[in-house]
Design goal:
- By secondary structure, this protein is mostly beta strands.
- Helices cover 10% and strands 30% of the residues.
- The chain has a 4-stranded antiparallel β-sheet with strand order 3-4-5-6, with no helix packed on it. A two-stranded antiparallel ribbon has the order 1-2.
- It starts with 12 loop residues before the first strand and ends in a 14-residue tail after the last strand.
């Protein structure tokens, strides 16, 4: 479910969207809290500062550690990062 990843599901890891807590609340391993990530993207999410939420089943909103955002769904990836804003021109006297 990572933006632009094409790895087949059969070779992916199951990731807890909300991190698993031993002894935590019941239902942590329910489908509402699991998504398929390839090993590389699983490690990026776990150790690299990437985060994501499931908006609804099959629709995921990703945020990079640099503030970029993407929407991933069954149709592919949509970049939601706003374009950079040019600073106002400097006034000269």
């Amino acid at each position: 479910v990572h933006p632009w990843c094409q790895r087949p599901a059969r070779s992916c890891d199951l990731d807890h969207i909300v991190p698993y807590q031993p002894g935590g609340p019941p239902g942590q391993t329910s489908t509402w809290n699991l998504a398929l990530l390839c090993r590389r993207h699983h490690r990026l999410k776990t150790h690299g500062g990437w985060t994501y939420t499931m908006i609804r089943p099959g629709v995921f909103l990703w945020r990079s550690p640099y503030g970029h955002t993407w929407l991933r769904d069954r149709t592919g990836t949509t970049d939601l990062t706003p374009p950079p804003v040019d600073p106002p021109p400097r006034r000269t006297s």
